[in-house]
Write a structure and sequence with these properties.
Helix content is about 50%, strand content about 25%. The chain is α+β, with helices and mostly antiparallel strands. Strands 3-2-4-7 form a four-stranded mixed β-sheet. α2 crosses α4.
């Protein structure tokens, strides 16, 4: 059961959404450090992007991290016309082309009609995700009844493991204290001789 936990963390949760066919790409630009408002962007990259990519394998996602802390923290959404989106979704390898320009990787979508930019600087990751969901009209993925049951079983197992860990730590501490008392008593007997 525990081996499914990592799969569930990717399949379900915040960021698990199906993007519309018109969305052909996403690009995140932010600094490598979290200083100066790049914390939310980093959290989106770490926590939400794997879920988005899992549910939208045909959508090209590029991350560009720079060392410029004062630089922008943007999430760019590339849209295609509905007719171009059906062509693009049938051949995901042609959906994006990456080129290096000035040390950063930039997405070039030959079929994109428009782009929308979400400013992520000094914003919480849940606000950024909410803006992305509203902007793209993405459909959130919800857990089925079976998945909910398995998630409850996983949580119950985690509680049991935590209780066992606490009990084991208490037992180890008790044994350590007993050993320390025995060592102290042996030291007192040895010095009395």
């Amino acid at each position: 059961m525990r081996r499914f936990k990592s799969l569930y963390t990717i399949r379900l949760g915040p960021g698990a959404a199906i993007l519309p066919k018109e969305v052909v790409g996403l690009r995140l630009e932010f600094a490598t450090k979290i200083n100066d408002g790049h914390f939310g962007a980093r959290k989106v990259w770490r926590n939400y992007l794997p879920r988005l990519k899992y549910h939208n394998p045909a959508v090209s996602i590029t991350v560009s991290r720079s060392t410029d802390q004062q630089g922008p923290a943007n999430l760019t959404v590339f849209y295609a016309s509905p007719s171009a989106a059906t062509i693009t979704s049938s051949s995901p390898s042609d959906a994006s082309h990456e080129s290096a320009r000035g040390g950063t990787r930039i997405l070039n979508h030959p079929t994109h009609d428009r782009t929308e930019i979400i400013d992520m600087k000094h914003r919480h990751e849940s606000d950024i995700l909410s803006d992305l969901m509203d902007l793209t009209n993405a459909a959130p993925v919800t857990a089925t009844a079976d998945e909910e049951l398995e998630l409850q079983q996983l949580k119950a197992e985690e509680k049991k493991i935590e209780a066992d860990r606490i009990r084991g730590a208490a037992l180890s501490e008790k044994l350590r204290q007993e050993k320390a008392l025995l060592d102290q008593a042996r030291g007192a007997i040895g010095s009395a001789r």
